[in-house]
Hints:
The chain has helices at 12-23, 29-38, 89-103, 118-126; strands at 2-6, 43-50, 53-65, 68-80, 110-111. With 151 residues, the chain is an alpha+beta fold.
Amino acid sequence: MIVIRPAEEADAAALATLAAEFTGLPATPEQMWARVQRSHGIEHPLIAEWEGNVVGFASLRLLHYLGEDAPYAEISELFVTLSCRRRGIARALMAQMEAAAQAAGATGLTVLADPHNALALTVYRSAGFEAFAVGLQKWFGAERPYREKAP
């Protein structure tokens, strides 16, 4: 059974492990919890449990902006460990974030995905997401932390 719930401080070690698996960048539990605390009120992190084990996480970013009165809602993180994929966990996380975005008054939900991540794109498209913009990013250093360099 899938359980989706807000992240708690006791989840910091699991979050650090999952984030490192997702990005390839190591983080300590203390670093992860400090990130959660710094983003409080903007990021709304969720934990996914399967059979009592933390197997995924997601975060809904909600913030007000100048474009409209409704808050901007974005899936800023979504990851399920490889061994637990194809069980509906990502969909359950997305459904929870969508419900929270709607409850906050958002008029839509945005997600940014690596254009080379076919699995993520398939999951998002099957959940009703469609392309609407081109994402660009400028890096301030020579290294890109965890994304592949453009061809």
